[in-house]
Amino acid sequence: MSASANDQVSWLRQPGVLAALPAAIFLLLGFAGPLVMVFGYSFMPARSFSLLQAPTLENYVSVVSESYYISFAWSVSLAALTVLLLFPICYPVAYGMARLFGKWANLVTVLIAVPLLISENIRLFGWVLVLVKNGILDGSLQTLFGASASGPLYSVPAIVLGLVYVYLPFMLFPLVIGISMVPDTLKEAASDLGASRWQIFREIELPLSMPGILIGGILTFILALGSLAESKILGGQAIVMIADDIESAFTFAQNWPKGSVLSVLLIGLSGLIVFALFRRIDLDQIIGRR
Q: What are the tens digits of pLDDT across the range 43-52?
């Protein structure tokens, strides 16, 4: 046996490699395998259930010809709007949790994390009771002011409210980590040199907390991009997001190739955004390697 073959065998026998082998096999079969099948189905003729047919690009063409790009546009727009709304909401809270709340920070963390233990659908149906016509909001306005909220349920603002509510923790906790990474000594030094509070925030705190901001933005955007329950429960088909089209293609329409091509495009769009933004994040700094 050659030296290179011996090196390969010895590498495979390393304890770390052997320990990671079950997880690698699980990920290969449970994660990579279905993705490969979805990618393969995206080239199959419409409403076929076999991968043994001649490949075609008609499903990709139909994304434009059947106006599925509108669903993509709605999904991207609402996901971006969710990130833009959550940042000014979460940054002051995250700053307080990291710098001001002290012993109360843990209590605030628990209060924010507890809703995650409840099903997302149940929480959204709670908002249905608030927003529906003659519901809690409408009834309270009529009782107190004699005015009506005109049933804000089943509208785009209701969907945005649901997205902001559901994905708030995914923006908040990375922001807390990012703000905690900013050394107090830098702010004290800037203050001693005559910098104003706004200058310290703009030149020191905001840039150094940018890894947490980017990670929170990525998490929120990707999750909101593939959201389904918010548009169905709070939107009532006021608009159709891409996840709605994917679900319909795989279930009611029984058109697996159409659902596959929409899934491939959504995964590709998400991956492109993630890779583009992660090029601006120093992961070694975040996990404390340097």
A: 998 888 888 8
149 touches 137 (CB < 8 A) = yes
Please give the Cα distance from 96 to 106 (Å, whole number).
11
Q: Determine the Cα–Cα distance for residues 79 and 175; give it in Å rounded to an integer.
A: 18
- Is residue 261 a contact partner of residue 69, using CB atoms and an 8 Å limit? no
Q: Indicate which CATH number applies to the domain containing 186.
A: 1.10.3720.10
Residue closest to 44 by CA, chosen among 63, 35, 57 = 57
Please, what's the largest Cα pairwise distance for the chain? 90
pLDDT beyond 80 at 13: no
Residue numbers of the domain that contains 25: 1-41
Pair 49, 257: CB distance under 8 Å: no
Q: If we measure between CA atoms, which residue out of 243, 246, 259, 263 comes closest to residue 48? A: 259
Contact 91, 175 (CB under 8 A): yes
